[in-house]
């Protein structure tokens, strides 16, 4: 078990580089640095994609695979940037927001959706999910 975990950690280490180019046919099977750059990108076209740790096969099967484009460089960061350099703020701001959402929920259905629904879900219909953001951008 220790050996497998060590190999997985080593694999994850090289995924977080920008100097490795696309890997040709291996891109269809393995999570590559190119796929992982898209996973961390905050660009609207790249949001909510490429979840696989080692294999990209399941992302391809479930429609969550997005290939990095030459004409659209990855912009790293958060969709809504934080205005603080406090390490406690940027490590725990989402937990705080989730706690606030759960306290304000009116019933168990809303609590469930805050916990397991898409990021940005709102009970009042004013959601800012990735799909909502993409629809708004297409309408402009």
The shape is globular
Rounded to an integer in angstroms, the radius of gyration calculated over CA atoms is 18 Å
Mean pLDDT: 91
DSSP E strands, number: 0
Low-confidence stretches: none
SSE pattern, N- to C-terminal: HHHHHH
Tell me the quaternary state: single chain
Strand content: under 5%
Q: How many domain regions? A: 2
How much helicity do the residues have? 40-55%
Q: Kindly report how far apart the N and C termini lie.
A: 51 Å
The major β-sheet equals: none
In terms of topology, how is this protein built?
Layout: H1 2-15, H2 33-40, H3 57-62, H4 87-104, H5 108-116, H6 130-139
Write up what this structure looks like.
This protein is an all-alpha fold and 140 residues long. It folds into 2 domains: 2-62, no CATH class; 95-139, no CATH class. The protein has 6 helices and no strands. It has helices at residues 2-15, 33-40, 57-62, 87-104, 108-116, 130-139. The chain starts with a helix and ends with a helix. 9% of the residues are buried.
